[in-house]
Design a protein that fits this description.
- By secondary structure, the protein is an alpha/beta fold.
- It has a single domain, classed as Carbonic anhydrase (Beta-carbonic Anhydrase, Chain A), CATH 3.40.1050.
- The protein is 44% helix and 24% strand.
- A five-stranded mixed sheet has the order 2-1-3-4-5.
- A hairpin with a 5-residue loop joins strand 4 and strand 5.
- Helix 2 packs across helix 4.
Length: 126
């Protein structure tokens, strides 16, 4: 029996971003399931890289990577974020910084950034 293919996403708790991001990841990376780790304004939290919450988020990602074999980790920032009410430019900078933080954890997974725009469409952050 073939093993299911998992991905991991650090997403905002905002329900307006969940479906689009998960569908995008399933389609682009051929995933069966997306393990979703949420906090309000998660790009701001990860980019700050401090506190007990960071360790807790790292532990959650470790479960997805080590137990489900996830090979991709996505970090999401989005338009109209109540948990991190900053402009788009700041969100993009925070997502890029978050990529560096999560990459430094040493998990054997590709780490990417995603922006969900004002039309609730997914854009990959280069």
């Amino acid at each position: 029996m073939q093993q299911a293919k998992f991905g991991t996403v650090f997403n905002c708790m905002d329900g307006r971003t969940q479906l689009q991001v998960n569908e995008f990841l399933r389609e682009k990376y051929g995933l069966d399931y997306v393990d979703t780790i949420t906090e309000p304004g998660i790009d701001g939290i990860l980019s700050a890289n401090s506190g007990e919450l960071i360790e807790y988020l790292k532990q959650k990602a470790g479960i997805s990577i080590n137990k489900h074999g996830s090979g991709i980790i996505a970090i999401v920032g989005h338009h109209d974020c109540a948990g991190n009410p900053v402009d788009k430019t700041t969100h993009i900078e925070q997502v890029k910084s978050s990529i560096d933080v999560v990459s430094s954890w040493g998990f054997p997974a590709e780490v990417i950034g995603i922006w969900v725009n004002e039309n609730w469409e997914v854009e990959v952050i280069e």
